[in-house]
Every structure is written in structure tokens, then in C-alpha cells.
Amino acid sequence: MDSLFNKKTEVVIFSATAIALYGYDQGMMSLINTNYDYLDTMGIAEEDPLVGIIVSVYYLGCAVGAIFASLLADKGGRKPAIFVSLALTAVGNLLMFIAGLGFDKGAMSTMFLGRVIMGLGVGGIDSVIPVYSSELNSEGGRGEALAKEFQSNIFGLNMAFAINLGVTGGLGKENQWAWRIPIIAMQVYPVLLLSFIYRLPETPRWFIFHSHHEDAKKALTDIYGEDEMKVKYDELVKAHEEESSHSVGYGDMIFPSGVQFHPSMVTVMGQVNQALTGYGAISVYGPQIFELLGLGVQESEYLTMGNYVSYFFLMTFAWLLIDRVGRRILMVGGAFGITACFFILTILGGLAQNSEKLGIPDKPVAIVGSVILFIATGIFGIGWLSEVWLIPTEIFPSTSRAQGSAISVVTWGLANFAVTLLTPIGFNNLSYWLFLILAATNLFAAWWTWAYSPETGGRSFEENQQFFEDAKEHNTWLVTRVNNGEFKDMPKSEKGDGQDGESQPLLGNGS
């Protein structure tokens, strides 16, 4: 029993469950957006831009929550920041549940408030959880570990949509409980995590940073045992002494003159390009995508569920490949693959929408289009879901990795706010031509990643940071022109068992 429930195992389970929470919201809103009672309660039509605005304000909340949570995590501790974030998530979720329940006036305002507050909480979770788990875990390949955690994100997505599908099928789209039950079911995540967090330790690194040395020793003993505690403690103290004279603030990261501006822009553009793949929108508006291919409402909903299940299992290839072939190849190849899929879907969507005029059967077109969409979703999961969250943990020095994580979440929130806001407008005004726009944005993502994003896999944190120092010396950000393109691929030199870089914590301790 002890080996199954030691502190390291508990941290992994806790972190994976927290990441599943953020996946749940994406699946939750998919069918809520088409529930007739929900639309009537909010006083909007299905084609109203407010449908997208209600979804997208959540991401604005995430962006703000990431900043405040990262500040609280530095000042008050990782655990208090996680606790506050989970509490905000629970409160926001409850406000969404009661919106319009027994009252008509103010239903939309309550829903908006709930979405924003829940966003504050989830943004905080996404910002602090990677820092917390990485400071307590130093085993396994960095990419594989994070890809596995993001597979749990897809589990949350599947859970939400399955609940949605079940209650919608049983109660009908006219029933208010068909949209309220999936919302309140999300409470299982924050409630379970809040009830479990007391068992987890604060990170020894935070204790040492704030001169709580006895607390640090106790936490290290809980995590590693008495035998390893002294060695780990000495390593952390030494690392802290080295880092304390090289502190980095947000100003050093977001202004062009800052020492960490270049890796910050790689982080920002990684999240922007992930948003440009269009899969934030497909996660939230899955059924509507299938309807563009000429399928009926119920068929589209069941195929969306099937797509999410396929997505979950195909994510296995992500953690099998990410530390073997590298981040860059998966991202560039993935963007090209999604470009091809969306180009084909543009043609198939045009055939489906004009099938009567062209005198062709619509069912074969819909079947082929559905297969292509399944393939594109799998490609995204393998090539883009976890990579853009992993790279920031590998390119910043230990003094700025927490800030790098926050910048990543803020960018993710703002980018997905824009995408989820504009997607319904695209459905209503562009129809299947939306696929062609997504093909073009994926092509841009492939080009930018190939040109400017270095390969970070198979290298130590220090080696990855050397790329940015060398880029400054060469006066270029182009990967192919820095050190003769050394960072285009995984390193070819033998590195023994790879422990130098790959076994380090996801966000590194510098120890």
C-alpha cells in the first residue's frame, strides 16, 4: 500500500486530476451551447454572437487568474495558491449552475460572472500545478511525463461530453437539467482535490526560498525519506544560493531589451500557434463542425463523442514519440498534417452543403469528412496538445520558470478567447470556408515553428538556454542559422543514459 500511495504518487494523481478539470470545461460547453432551454434562459438565439462570448470570457478569466496565482504561489506558497484556485473554480461552477434557476432576470449576468470566476480558478490551476508537480518530481522523461498528464486532460473532455450526451439523450434539449447536470457534475473535481490537498507537502524549494529550513527538511523527508533528505536539502540550498543573485522579473521577459525576451516569445508564439490550429474551437464546438459536413444533429453529437474517445487513445502516441523524435518534428509535421486535413474538409464541406444542387449523395461525403476530422484531431493530440506546455519548462533558467509558466497560460487564455469568440461568427458567416482559413493558419504555425522554435528534447536545461545565448551572439532567431542549425533536431551525440536533461523535473529545480 505504501508504494502505491507515497507522496510522489499522490502528487502525480493530484496533478493529473487537476489537469483533467480543465479538459472537462471544454467538453461541458459543447452540447450546452445547443440546448434550447439554455439558450432560452440566457435570452439568446443559437446563432447569436453571445453564445461565443459566454464561452470565451472564461479564457480571459484564465489569463488573469494565471498571473495572480503565480504571484500568490511565490509569496504564500504553492499549496495556498492551488487551494484558492480550486475554491474559485468551485464558486464559479456553482454560479453557472444556478444561473436562471428560479429567476429570469440576471440569468446571463450570473452565467458571465460564473464563467469569469471559474476561469480565474482554472487559470491559476494551469499556472501553478506544473510548477508544483515539477518541484516534487524528478523521474522519467520530461516530455513523456507531461504528455501523460495531458492525456488525463482528454479524459476530462470525454467525461464531460459523455455526461452531456447521456442527459441530453435522456431528458431532451428542451429540459433545463440536460444542461445544468453536466455543469454541477464538474464539482467532483474541485471538491475531491480540495479534500485531498491537505495530504500533500508544500515544495521544499519554496520553503528554502523563504528561509523555512526546518519545514523544508520535513517535506524532503516525507517525499524522499530520511536517507535522501540531507543530500536533497544540500542541493536545494546550493541551488538557492546560486539563483538568489540572478533574479528575473516579468519586465525582463516581456520587453525586447529583457534578458529572457527571446524564450518568452517562443513561449508566446507556441501558444498562439496552438490556438491557430483551431482545436480549441473544435473541442468546444465539436457537434457544429460535424454538421458542416452534412450530418444531422444527433449523428454529429455521437460522432463528436467518438472523436473524443479516439483523441484520448491516440494521445498515447504523443508520450511514446515526444522524447524519441523530438518536439519540433511532431509540431511541424502535425501542423502540415492538419493543414492537409482542413484543405480536404473544405472541399468535402462544399460538396456536403451543395449536394442537392450537384446531385450527389451527401452520406458518403459526410463519412469521408468524419474520418478526416478524426485523423486531424489525432494529429493535433500527438503534435500540439502537450508540446507547447512542455517547451517553456525547458528553455527558461530556474529563476524564471514559474513566470514562464504564467506567461504560457496567459497567452493560452487570450488566444483561446479570440478563437472561441470568433468561431461561432465563422460558422454563421463562412460555413465550410472556415476550414480553409484553419488550413492557412496551420500552415503559418508550421512555418513559424520550423523557423524559430528550437528542438529542446534530449538536452539539459543548460544546453537549451545556451541556444538563446548563441542566438544573441549570432544576432538571429532563425534556428537554422544558430550554431549551423544544431537545434533543428534532437542531439546526435551519445549522452549515456540521458539523465543529464531528460530526468530533470518538468520545470527544473536547478539542483
In short:
This protein has 511 residues and is mostly helical. It contains 24 helices and no strands.
List keywords for this structure.
single chain, about 500 residues, mainly alpha, 24 helices, globular, disordered C terminus
Distance between the termini: 30 Å
Q: What value does the Rg take, in angstroms?
A: 23 Å
Order of helices and strands: HHHHHHHHHHHHHHHHHHHHHHHH
Tell me the number of helical segments per DSSP (H or I, 4 or more residues long).
24
Structural class: mainly alpha
Description:
By secondary structure, the chain is mainly α. The protein has 24 helices and no strands. α1 packs antiparallel against α7 and α3 (49-75) runs antiparallel to α4. The longest helix is centred in the N-terminal third of the chain and has 30 residues, at 142-171. The radius of gyration is 23 Å and the shape is globular.
Layout of helices and strands:
Elements (H helix, E strand, L loop, with lengths): L6 H26 L3 H7 L6 H27 L2 H21 L8 H29 L6 H30 L5 H9 L2 H9 L7 H6 L3 H12 L1 H18 L7 H4 L6 H16 L2 H6 L1 H7 L4 H25 L5 H27 L1 H4 L3 H22 L3 H4 L1 H4 L5 H30 L2 H20 L8 H14 L37
